[in-house]
Amino acid sequence: VEASIPEPQRAAWSRNQIQSFTDKDGFEKEVVRHVETTLARSMFNCDESAAYSATSLAFRDRLIKDWNKTQQRQTYRDTKRVYYLSLEFLMGRALDNAMLNVGLKDAAKGGLADLGFRIEDIIGQEHDAALGNGGLGRLAACFLDSLASLNYPAWGYGLRYRYGIFKQEIIDGYQVEVPDYWLDFNPWEFPRHDVTVDIQFFGHVSKTTKDDGKTAAIWEGGEIVQAVAYDVPIPGYDTPTTNNLRLWSSKASGGEFDFQKFNNGDYESSVAEQQRAETISAVLYPNDNLERGKELRLKQQYFWVAASLYDIVRRFKKSKRGWNEFADQVAIQLNDTHPTLAIVELQRILLDIEGLEWDVAWDIVTKTFGYTNHTVLPEALEKWPVGLVQYLLPRHLQIIYDINLYFLQTVEKAFPKDRDMLTRVSIIEESQPKMVRMAHLAIVGSHKVNGVAELHSDLIKTTIFKDFVEVYGPDKFTNVTNGITPRRWLHQANPRLSELIASKCGGNGFLKDLTQLNRLEAHAKDAAFRREWAEIKYANKVRLAKHIKNVTGVTVNPAALFDVQVKRIHEYKRQQLNIFGVIHRYLTLKGMSVEERKKQLPRVSVFGGKAAPGYWMAKQIIHLINAVGSVINKDEEIGDLLKVIFLEDYNVSKAEMICPASDLSEHISTAGTEASGTSNMKFVLNGGLIIGTCDGANIEITREIGESNIFLFGNLAEDVEDLRHAHNYGSHSIDSDLEKVFGTIESGTFGTPHDFSAMIAAVRHHGDYYLVSDDFHSYMETHRLVDESYRNQDEWVSKCITSVARMGFFSSDRCINEYADGIWNVEPLVVQE
Ligand code: 4GP
Known about the structure:
By secondary structure, the chain is of the alpha/beta class.
């Protein structure tokens, strides 16, 4: 019940409200206040960590005001909202982003300097919020930034993992995983102990007859776990809109622990129950493009979607509208199949709790959901054993069976007697054991299905979802090419370049409308501008070189060509192709005379990325990279001509330092395997060129920036199947240069050959599924072209400038607008301050 507060009192409150700081002095006062009161420390012993905490709290206070107003505005205007359900949000650091988005970074810089700190050091104190694995989670984070910056009424829903993605250490060349406990001090979240939802698991279903004579299902028994909301403000850039990311944390229902058991002397089991409940949101599964089908993972999924839907429905009900308006008020986007149970849960709520008829409920459900697919890799497609679903969620399994029944009935009508079709599209796979195919459920329960780059969206229509295109027609399937937020990936990561661009683009407008970058094109041939551009790149390389020295002890020459591949380690992404190429380069250099060598271009090959802890081959790849580095980096004959660096614990904040420092980055997946890629966009936007295959968004990047500004190589997606077939059923000869590389590894040059034999066997004897040998020659030839091209620095820099000028398409603002128009049907909420 809201207290009724007399008007004069309300007016007095708003007059006396604490004013947000707007300048350096105001900021300093706030920092001192937080150090001395919130942190209970004195300014005399304020170290960098305390200064970080106080600075964050000062900015957080600012955000809270806008955040509250945004929520009030959205409630008051009651327009359609979009809900982005993602099991991963790879946010990175928040402070720098908050300072830039509210336009007060300079004030903070000055204020911190007065207090004796460098702003970079303070920003560097923050622990990354690493609640994601790779591209899928980072995309969700970029989307949140765009949704707020474009003033869309939007919420993100996820899980508040106590442990994000593990921290990677490299010990003796091997990856070692260390837990990432990131919540010690997190000023960016607000626990909402008043916002809780009881989530049911297990139990059984019985039928009851209602007053009107109809039967209804009742799900009873089992166990209850409580979901507690933690809210994270998401500030838009240059707008007061501050949206909300709500992360759920699990807790035993009914308090800290069972006092009854405690009093009876059964202390251990009362705590055990508490711990079991808390396990649900304890840890992020560290798999990228891979599903392992663990029971706890399914529990996480249901826990999170049930809490989120309860919240969404509760908010909808506040508006007192009829259910027929639900889909006009609510759009829910499923980030991959992880939240697919939300479809079943909404149907359950409408049917069992709200008492709607099946067809009426199902119509609402399908109008509400949209589903984004992020991969065609078969090992990543989610399936759950029917038995497990039945055990954990008995009522949901019944509903899934009914959804399937009605769906298959319509398919049968359209394709009479086509039994194979029914088997292929069925939500239930008739295997041993039977499985629920989550992608099929997501397609059937959504009104739109999208891929994340043109090639990928075409591929899903012709391969994994081909039958569904026949069933529903092509219009249900669409493409929204991924994008990245230019605020974090240019303005924040590369402030000097951003400033230089602003000087030629008529100010910072390009950060809100990235197509304005095209104004740069006219300056690509301007020698003075090129010089400034090159200086900034060089400074960014010096910064990375220092970091490399600090963490690896290896000295690299900033004048060398920096060649970077940073992303999750995966055979399909082909870091093995890269390292084989590096070995080949090394052998070539070793075979040269001293004179010849002097003419060569120095290179630094930088790798970074985590392997899933259970992915043995990926870990072998990391080991080989490190083994090769430790030999080459010590080889005095080679010196600066080649260095090989593996940067441990690649994450968002490291990416912000690495992207601006690359001359060339590698996006070299086997054609048809990388759905989109988004780091390709980040590297080009930061004035680097790319070497890549005709895969994912590389194709659209080429279309936008022009073929002469990208180094493409390798076989095309359409040829992959034939090549694989030939490897397995024809003769498979390995590229002769690659054989030399294998020979060197096998001779023990990089340590015990046995360690790497499986990697070689995968190419030689096991069908070379990823086409490493097929693409090796053209890969090496293309690297030769890169070297040649880099020698002409004027032309190289012109290419970089031209490419940046043409990158406007790849803003996540563009893609959010496409989702809003084509899938969600939501409008921005104009802010009238
Ligand atoms: C990734 C895709 O592998 C990547 O190509 C894409 O850019 C990204 O999603 C965002 O759409 N998929 C995953 C995953 O991270 O776990 O499936």
